[in-house]
Amino acid sequence: MRIAVILLAVAAGLPLLAQDRSPRKLIPEMDGKSLYVAYCASCHGMDGKGKGPVAAALKDKVPDLTSLSFRRGGKFPSADLEKMILGEGDPRTAHGSREMPVWGPLFRQVENDQEVGLVRARRLVEYIGAWQKPKR
């Protein structure tokens, strides 16, 4: 079943994310939504709730990105999320394992004599941050 789900995701053009064996293609877009769709949605789902088409094939439950602030007492963990995306943080503290690919090396490819990887990560974090609901 796991192989069938992964093959279906690859055939649909979604990146293969399990255990960091993902295709390493940098998209030209720099907006948060495009980055999310290209690098996150296959596992986290288009709505960020952790039910993307590849999620069922992974051994660990994919986190719901829409409730990060709620789970942190109303504070959005933007710095921690940015570090996780770039692969700079300890994956065990917030993500459980390193099934999530580290996008830092890909995002940091030099383009036009500029290193814009941090811009990509921040725009992605801003996009995810917009989904957060205030603590009840």
Shape: globular
Largest sheet: 2 strands, antiparallel
Beta strand count: 2
The whole-number mean of residue pLDDT values reads 78
Integer-rounded radius of gyration? 14 Å
**Number of helical runs?**
8
Order of helices and strands: HHHHHHHEEH
Output the CATH topology.
Cytochrome Bc1 Complex, Chain D, domain 2
Distance between the termini: 39 Å
**Protein structure class:** mainly alpha
Give the low-pLDDT segments.
4-23
Percent helix range: 40-55%
Name of the CATH architecture: Orthogonal Bundle
Plain-language structure description:
Helix 2 packs across helix 8 (117-129) and helix 5 (78-86) packs across helix 8. The chain is globular and about 40 Å long. It has a two-stranded antiparallel sheet. Strand 1 (110-111) and strand 2 (114-115) form a beta hairpin. It starts with a helix and ends in a 7-residue tail after the last helix. It has helices at 2-11, 32-39, 41-44, 68-71, 78-86, 91-94, 104-107, 117-129, and strands spanning 110-111, 114-115. The chain contains eight helices and two strands. With 136 residues, the protein is an all-alpha fold. The protein has one domain (2-129): Cytochrome Bc1 Complex, Chain D, domain 2 (Orthogonal Bundle), CATH 1.10.760. The longest helix has 13 residues, at 117-129. Residues 4-23 have low confidence and may be disordered. Helices cover 41% and strands 3% of the residues.
